[in-house]
Design brief:
The chain has 7 helices and 17 strands. By secondary structure, the protein is an alpha/beta fold. It has one domain: Class I glutamine amidotransferase (GATase) domain (Rossmann fold). β8, α7 and β9 form a beta-alpha-beta unit.
Length: 296
Amino acid sequence: MPSQVPAGYTRGAILFIGPLQDADGEAALLQRFWNEAGGYGARILIVSAFENDLSAAQRYNERFEEWESEWVAILPVQERTDARRDESAVAVEQATGVLLVGDNPLRMAGLLGGTLLATAIRRANARGKVVCGIGACAPILCQHMIAYDNRKRIPHPFLHRRLIQFAPGLGIVNRLLLDSSNDPAEGPAMRLSRLLAAVAHNPFLVGVSLEADTGVAVYADTTLEVFGRNSALIVDGSEITYTDVHKYEDDGPLSVLGVQAHVLGRAYTFNFDSRLVQPPDEGDIPPPTTTAQIAF
């Protein structure tokens, strides 16, 4: 669960960044995080859970230093003992923005779950600090993660009860569930089916999938905003009128009625309380920089 916001504080922004496709897209997305973290006054902690590989963290570190952040530090987390150290929690407390990077959200959950570092990250966000997850590890910020897609083993209907399995994340946000798969062999239908299955199990959730070089930011007023080069898929189960997810023990097709889906470009917003989508003002839409390369 997200940490309770103390009196006098406002929860910090929570950023999810999808697969990074090129250097220009990477720079634009990282700059959004840098701006949210304070710009020139940013104190950025990069928590890296890549196994024996700090190259991505070092690349991001160099960018933030080039942009003249107040300070940037890398915190490698290779074992749970790294996340249980007092100094790891202290580093989070000193930062204005925490960036989590890694290639496996389940591995990161196993390293961080129940540690001082995880608690410090949740508390920091509740006290106004910005938290961001990039690429494959971005779902770790959610309370619920999609851990497994059973259809990869044997053929199944488009939507069925055993399509996905859930796993717990850090719980920075509990309303959003992110499908972060960047498998080039997957088409839009595969990602849509996973999100439909997720909201059918729990209509409280809002499913999100991001195209390459695209991100979403969740703010304290429960507004989600799309940023970056391409689009975000939003699957909203709040208006579901019926689902038979509870009836089947086999792999027969699953039905779900009343679900809503939105495809949102940059600067479009979605509100978790009202479930309303708002287009941006004309002047708020930046010009496109390139043609989209992949779909969801």
